[in-house]
Amino acid sequence: MSTFYFIAFLSIFFSILVISAKSPVHSILYLILTFFTFTIHYILMNAQFLAIVNFIVYMGAILVLFLYTLMLINLNKDSEPVKPFMVKLAAVFGAGILMVALVSSLKLSGASAPVVLTNPNLGLVKNLGKVLFNEFLLPFEVSSVLLLSAMVGAVLLATKDPKEPKATI
Amino acid sequence: MELAEIGIKFALVAIIFGISLVVAMYSTYAERKIAAFFQDRVGPNRAGPFGILQPLADGAKMFLKEEIIPTNATPFLFIVGPSLAILTACIASAVIPWGQNVVIAGKTIPLQVTDINVGILYIFGVVSLGVYGVMIGGWASNNKYSLLGAIRAASQNISYEISMGLSIIALLLVTGTLSLGEIAQQQHGWHWNVIYQPVGFILFLICAFAETNRTPFDLPECETELVGGYHTEYSSMKLGFYLFAEYINMFISSAVMVTLYWGSYNYPGMDFMNELLGTTWGPLFGFAVMFFKVLLFIFFFMWVRWTIPRFRYDQLMDLGWKVLIPLAIANIVVTAVVITFLK
């Protein structure tokens, strides 16, 4: 249990660093560390497959793309939009209200009973695959359609319209 | 786990670590000798007989060179880059099965550090993490050429990871397991996966070249366009780590290819040899056979480097996205159909 608290502390610590870091690239690097602590959480829960997929997909692919994009954009003090004082005030006020709402809702709701897994090895690849392709086959397939539509949308956005007149220089 | 077991694991880790470092060290020597052979030269021949001490001399030179951190670089990340590159190169070897169980003094010792049941995915994850070393180093140098090299490395690795993953999926349809230990066992007696998955193997091989940044895919350090690529600003042992990581990666990816496709430690006449040599030397002989196969692959990497010129960048992307990925998907479909009808 102490391992859990240590890792949970690290997750929160790194996520605070993500939003407080000055340079956007540093903030992405802290985000990578945050995701790494999530991987450790999954391993602690004996969910090996989720752990490794989190590792490959989030740390290995999505955040590489984040970093890639950030390196191409020139982010510095000159290009940063100037925010008026009222906007800053409104942001602080809004965030404060959100915190009050969250704290009160957490205080009102009682602690939920811990979920006891019937099969502690549910997270292993074999068991997970059986569950996904038997019990949850339809949601699983539908989510693949969602991904397909996202991909088609990305391709559509990336290809230029041939009918559009070319920009004159 | 008892104390003796932990001690054995530590010894095994130390041995594998040592072997990969020595292999990487002598790969630099082999690379120069092979290049010399292909270009009809002599190659390094001054340090020791046949220049055999050349890697040691190079290493000493690397350590003694002046340490330079550019003024405008981000100092911490500048050091993190090469460290991360060498770290990710070294940790991949943990799941590779190097041989059958060895019996020494009545104790059975598996020649594999850990047989996690998602072994292939672990290797895949470590490989995808490897690009951070290059990216962070390239960005922290605060140099346009370094940044361009880093960006090239990132897009190249991500593109080729996809077809690598797809080629592995076809392999998994054949093997039915993600554990490298089991895959190695299954290939006993000429059931080498390369016979069932020839297209998958070629795809994996091409992607391995791209993932290790070897010629013809060494665009991130293309010196005709980018001075030195992502390590332009690096000097001393930090540069050494980047170069070293490449050779370790080459060794590990050769070992992965041998394990997945070329029968791992299995060889013809294995059962006969195991009976002849006993339970201690038999598996160790299997390890030697595997090591020989790995060395052949390393030679192949070098052979290609000194034979085929570098791609142009758009050709690289076209090959990755328009040739390899459709081919890999077709391979999956064909494999799945064949397996369904045979069972």
From TrEMBL, chain B:
Quaternary organization: NDH-1 is composed of 14 different subunits. Subunits NuoA, H, J, K, L, M, N constitute the membrane sector of the complex.
One of the protein's GO biological processes: aerobic respiration
Enzymatic reactions: a quinone + NADH + 5 H(+)(in) = a quinol + NAD(+) + 4 H(+)(out)
A Gene Ontology cellular-component term: plasma membrane
TM ranges: 6-26, 76-99, 119-141, 162-184, 190-210, 241-264, 284-303, 323-342
EC number, UniProt record: 7.1.1.-
Name this polypeptide is given: NADH-quinone oxidoreductase subunit H
Alphabetized InterPro entries for the sequence: NADH_UbQ_OxRdtase_su1/FPO, NADH_UbQ_OxRdtase_su1_CS
PANTHER family: NADH DEHYDROGENASE SUBUNIT 1 (PTHR11432), NADH-UBIQUINONE OXIDOREDUCTASE CHAIN 1 (PTHR11432:SF3)
Family: Belongs to the complex I subunit 1 family.
